[in-house]
């Protein structure tokens, strides 16, 4: 097995990463077909960021998933793991045929990731709101162990309604955790409707700044902006939060205007439309 280390901030062509994002969307559709239900639009809003993290930003060693000096990535919005699994398989964390067992009885790949079953998964998810707190703990551990790994945590904007997130934000600012980087996938919509109607959490950046974080707000679908933000975040002298403005269901037109594809299943006609729209971009 290849024992190579994938270095941090390795060279990657933005156009290639854009195609990876659309490949993630296609794989999500394929895996939902196996499960007969799944989270399309929550993956589609962060697909560009998944691609940038795994194919450019993170320092990884797929042959040794518990390598102590790897960068950590925690997925607070764990229902988007269906878009993470194909990447982990392609990088060599586990056999690609595991994907064909997604959510089937006995499969290690569930709707939410289990760190005890999925190589490359740094923490489990289920109940929303815990992962930023865990990320604080990992960043503190790196400091105590004198290791230089970075801890990245992606959370959803709906997740910001959880009080534990703000306790973690306060602790990270207090301890000056410059090795902790957060990403808010601010797609503006959850299962119950628009985030501002369910629980208004704006202004996101100003709130994190009030807890002592540095922040940056970007278009989360602009690959150049994503790459620049990820590189910039690593230079902060305190915890850093990237507020990525995204669109739920991005990349499939009929999914972009409704919360109803947060969890669902594409019938044959809708699936054909969605796949054709994504494939057209891949073939361009």
Automatic annotation (TrEMBL):
Residues 20-267 form the Transketolase N-terminal domain. Keywords: Thiamine pyrophosphate, Transferase. Its EC number is 2.2.1.1. Signal peptide: none annotated. The keyword Membrane does not apply. The keyword Thylakoid does not apply. Its cofactor is thiamine diphosphate. GO terms for molecular function: transketolase activity. Belongs to the transketolase family. This is Transketolase. It comes from Sphingopyxis granuli.
